[in-house]
Amino acid sequence: MVPSTGCNKTRTAVFISGTGTNLKSLIKFSRNAKSPISIDLVISNNSKAKGLDYAKKFKIKKKVLNFKKKKLSEEKLLSILKINNINMICLAGFMKILSGNFIKKFKGKILNIHPSLLPKYKGLNSHKRVLNNKEKYSGCTVHFVNARLDSGKIILQKKVKISKNETETSLAKKILVQEHKLYPKAILKAFNL
Ligand code: GAR
Q1: Is residue 134 in a domain?
Q2: Which pTM was predicted?
Q3: Which end of the chain has a smaller Cβ tally under 10 Å, C or N?
């Protein structure tokens, strides 16, 4: 990723579907002078996503697109991104799969965070599958997005140890704490900073 010229930060959109705790941590990071990105837009496929409250709190523009007609929603989305001069996208708990055509338009400029040590446990219900398989470790991964689900080039990972009485909820919580630290670090790395 190439940083914007001068003192301008790269205009970034964060896509969410739910709680938005990663969005919150990214907003805080973006407001640090050393951050190469500014967050100028929040996109959600879910009008009830709790994370939308952060957009309001931090006075960031937000848009909801329901993705029921994916092609139409993506076309609208592309024009919203263009109007807002967005150059980078961070997926943060965004539970819709973007089409290859959409991804092509932002080639090398979409990042995602996934709650497992990719390439293991791609897709949904990672924590459940990790526990069922009696893994000793899990973690989280920030990667570039390509046309194949959770398969783009890995930027950074953080490993966590699974405790004896670990549950899906406790593991998700433990990994989420690490996600909030990992995503900003991975962005710096993606910008070679
Ligand atoms: C995070 O654990 C994120 O890694 C995961 O959803 C959660 C969102 O939490 N993402 C995926 O599973 C994507 N396939 P948040 O809304 O509090 O940031």
Answers
A1: yes
A2: 0.97
A3: C
